[in-house]
Amino acid sequence: MASYAAQAPVTAPLTYISLFGLGALIMRSAGCTINDMADKDFDKAVDRTKDRPIARGDLTRRQAFGFLGLQLTGGLAVLTQLNWYSILLGASSLPIVSLYPFMKRFTYWPQAVLGLAFNWGALLGWSAVAGTLDLGVALPLYAGGFCWTIVYDTIYAHQDKADDVKVGVRSTALLFGEHTRTVLSAFSASSVSLITLAGYMNAQSLPFYAGVGVAAAQLARIVYKTDFNSRPSCWKGFVGCGIAGAWIWAGALADYGLMISGVQATLW
């Protein structure tokens, strides 16, 4: 979307998608390492997670800490490829990433903290391309991603709600309970509306909105059909939320492709 706004050449999105893809892989795996280190005792008590390496005893916490150091070093190496504004903006997300694994002990809203962390790329991606932030676009995109995270991670959390009660951790799945379908409908509508607003503020054209429209239908289908008391159904719904995100990305990509084709035609 930033490349679309700046009419940047194809090399810009290709470069930053590659960097951000690698950075996301490294930093989200680092978040999983922190989570598994923090949840060793919980994971041992739950059938679905008892075979994770730390819970099973294949790795000690010290070994995991060393591995985490390598992951964070790799993440820093990726971050230093960006401009200074983005380096500072990216580094400022580390406290949120580090706090997330512990939030389930203190609040029924750990999914909200996850949303704050996971969607930082909506801010960082724009600053990487433009060197600064257009808050009129980036903030509604960030907020829309935040609402989307609440939807998919609440569905995910419903898989473990019985075990969560047993081990004493909290989640939005437990908080929303029988009202989950209604609450997630509201968050889905908010997500789609905010992302549509970001597109409007960025002067996107029809392909972008087509992608958002298909994503909206996908989210509506998932929220309507998911059985929140069935682990297989929740897993299917969780994966389906990722497909909704892919449709939005595809719409933005198509919009950029049309724009860059028009620019090239004008140059010729």
Description:
With 268 residues, the protein is mostly helical. The chain has a single domain (2-267), classed as Tetracycline Repressor, domain 2, CATH 1.10.357. The chain contains 15 helices and no strands. Helix 8 (110-118) crosses helix 10 (135-157) and helix 10 runs antiparallel to helix 13 (180-201).
Topology record:
Elements: H1 2-6, H2 11-38, H3 40-44, H4 53-56, H5 61-79, H6 84-91, H7 94-103, H8 110-118, H9 121-130, H10 135-157, H11 161-167, H12 172-176, H13 180-201, H14 206-225, H15 231-267
Pfam families: UbiA
Keywords: Isoprene biosynthesis, Membrane, Mitochondrion, Mitochondrion inner membrane, Transferase, Transmembrane, Transmembrane helix, Ubiquinone biosynthesis
GO cellular component, one term: mitochondrial inner membrane
